[in-house]
Amino acid sequence: MKDLGLGVRRGLLLAGPPGVGKSAITSVIASELAGPFTVVYRNSRSGASLLRNVFDECVRLGPSLVVIEDLDLIVGHRHGSDFSSHALSEFLAALDSHPSAPLLVMATTNDVTTLDSAAVRAARFDSIIEVPYPSPATTKQILETLLTDVPGSTRVDTSAVAAALPRNTNGADIREVVRRSVLKSQPVTTQALLAQISTGRYRPTMPEVGNYL
């Protein structure tokens, strides 16, 4: 691709709701590439202004992976209320710099529709990968992993527990169900897990304004 003048840099955008494992995926990929690649993390607190400097330094260091967390908090949509044309310009300038350099850019976002189309077009992000809520089968696997060292876990009906969880349950929710159940009951039981699910307390909710008065 480089010899043909088409560039070698690739961009991957992981999109999905909070808590489904986007950051975990980037961490696994980064750990696999660490060594042959220089891995650089940027988050929303870093803003877009220093990205160009980061890219310049990565080119100097050789093959690099740049991970950008919560891209939607850095680059919004030009029709959004909190849109910053300066931030978008800085971000696009960084992405378009060094098109033939061996750079892989991997970013995460909770909602791809909040990103300006200029930021996610082809040649900037070549692939947008949806990371959905876990399926019932995946939820069952997550439960089994979390319960591995918990007393009584071998008798837990993880299929029944997985089926009782709402479809929009993420990995953090599942972990909290297990944590609360272990605090309430040891050895842990299927009934204890189902009871925690029925309360809904494993998922924080905003209190009514009146509760503060």
What does this 3D model show about the protein?
- By secondary structure, the protein is an alpha/beta fold.
- It has helices at about 20-35, 50-60, 85-95, 135-145, 160-165, 170-185, 190-200, and strands spanning about 10-15, 40, 65-70, 105-110, 125-130.
- The chain has a 5-stranded parallel β-sheet, sandwiched between helices.
- β2, α2 (about 50-60) and β3 form a beta-alpha-beta unit.
- α4 (about 135-145) packs across α5 (about 160-165), α4 (about 135-145) crosses α6 and α6 crosses α7 (about 190-200).
- The chain is elongated.
Mean pLDDT: 82
Helix content: 25-40%
Label the CATH architecture of the largest domain: 3-Layer(aba) Sandwich
* Rg, Cα atoms, Å: 21 Å
Provide the CATH top-level class of the largest domain: Alpha Beta
Which fold name corresponds to the CATH topology of the largest domain? Rossmann fold
Give the name of the CATH superfamily of the largest domain: P-loop containing nucleotide triphosphate hydrolases
Reported for the largest beta sheet, the result is: 5 strands, parallel
Strand order in the largest sheet? 2-3-4-1-5
Helix/strand order: EHEHEHEEHHHH
Strand content: 5-15%
